[in-house]
Amino acid sequence: MHKPLIAGNWKMNTTIDQGAQLVMKLRELLKGIQDIEIVIAPPFTSLQHLNFLLADTAIKLSAQNLFWEKNGAYTGEVSGEMLRAVGCEYVIIGHSERRRYFGETDETVNKKILAALREGLKPIVCVGETLEEREAGRPVEKVSAQVRSALNGLGPGMVKDLVVAYEPVWAIGTGRNATPSQAEEVHDSIRELLYEEYGMAAVNDMRIIYGGSVKPTNIDSLMAQPNIDGVLVGGASLNAEDFARIVKFEKSPER
What we know:
This protein is α/β, with parallel strands linked by helices. It has a single domain (5-247), classed as TIM Barrel (Alpha-Beta Barrel). It has helices spanning 16-29, 47-53, 80-85, 96-102, 106-118, 131-135, 139-150, 180-198, 200-205, 219-223, 240-247; strands at residues 5-9, 37-41, 59-63, 90-93, 122-127, 163-166, 207-211, 230-233. It is globular. The termini are close together.
């Protein structure tokens, strides 16, 4: 069994002071939890300050994006080396909002994954289908193509720290969410693809998590699915009590 990963993506929310207040609440609410890997992804501006506040906790730090070059004349971009220097262990790559608003493609996602791994960062790679693709009966086809592209050029020894986050685009920020069985179907297909490409070692090492309107009210049913190893939480991660309830999901007997 994989150690569950619960990650909170704060997106473009919270100032440094607001982020500090949220972290202090989380420190108290999540004290002593060791069987769940907890990650938060604040805005770039807060990373260094919050890293100090998280120093004696089990909560790990993630960035929301990175650029694929190490340095250079790339105004407004942030490199993996910079993220490591402020304490990041993870980085989110290819979120649907990045694809939709900022032109992320399967090719640039792959370049960012390779850059993250070179710098010792663990990528949380987002994949997911649109409503049109789901209604056309193509969710597995679309997601499988995104995963294959993301893994392009990655040898077996490179994928162990990579996390795949299945986020159906039609469920992000809409209040709608895939049913546990819909999510499980796609997660199972991703697991099968990993087995075909890399063998059992990748299946044992890599975690596949779900994102898309994850809330305290649906976390237990999602985490009861055998192929869901955790969740990537959006809006609910900005509320300390809601995020803590998600981290403290009711475990099924198998977990």
